[in-house]
Amino acid sequence: MARTKEPYPAIPLPEAYENIDYRIIMDDLIDAAAALEVYKMKIHDSKVNPSWYMPNLQRKEALKSSMMEGTRATLDEVLINQANPDKNDQDLNEVDNYCHAFTLGYKMLTRGDFDDDFFFDIHKALLSGKVRKSASEIGKYRSTQNYVVRGTGNVIYTPPAAENVPALMKNLIDFMNAPDKSLRPLVQIAVIHAQFETVHPFLDGNGRVGRILIPLFLFAKGELASPNFFLSEALEKDKLRYYKYLMDIRTKGNWNEWICFFLQAVTKQCRKYSRMFDRINGLYQRDREGICRIVRSSDYAIHLIDGMFQCPVFDTSLMQELTDIPSATLNRYLKQLVERGILFTDEKKRNKLYFYFELLDLLEG
Asked: Per residue in 106-116, pLDDT tens?
């Protein structure tokens, strides 16, 4: 592999984005901000407690972000792995690590601001159990040069020299804790994500850490009540343009096209999530009524439907843990739900799994 390109001389913030022109980005900003407000309203008004199914969206986010780095898995496989973990499947372990890293970042931000340890701990969680680089480089900024390689192995981007990374990350962290108030929050996170990917402070995992930042920053700055907006699905669908516009910042200083692209992705994903919420609410109301007719105890019925929304793929032990329904009673209810076509099963005699396919279809769609 030819590695002839010199390290990129990254420009600190705010100097890096001095050519942002609101006249160019304003229409896309208005659309994105409005779509995000509608999405937040859908969550607030939902008949379904978002905490029951937000973890499934988080797993989908983890999958889509990991897929951008070469992970091969499906959402069904990710959710099956939740019920029956396979510690030997590296792709599924990468998705699990992403979820753990995201949750860790969220907990850290409830206790303080962004700092180096925030990035180090997320990086450790992301790469735990599947070291691709030297173990000495995990959970700390890189000490050697790295390269962004695509396609046939050609180097398409050489990040800043390792000795410049600490200062560039300090500059970025200072900006994250006290962002430029002349920029709207959605523009701020577009800038932050691009700058993090430009610095590329770790040997591995930079793309995933950078995408984890998107909901966590919006949560930290009060734009989200919880970090429940995930953008990797939209970026993964349009990843060629995603990579192109990031490169255009570095080669042409073209921040406006990148920010317009980012805002358009926010709009698309918010609108998709809003439609999904409407369908999920309809499914919840319909099947709650159906299960209440099957299950005599109304408390058990509600616990069961809530458990199914938390884990649309489960075994009896997982559902019992979620609902506290006695084992014999739960088995009887599950058999009835399979007979009514609400649930499906893999028919195994041992470690039988149950699938709530209608919810899976909505989450996947």
From this structure: 999 999 999 99
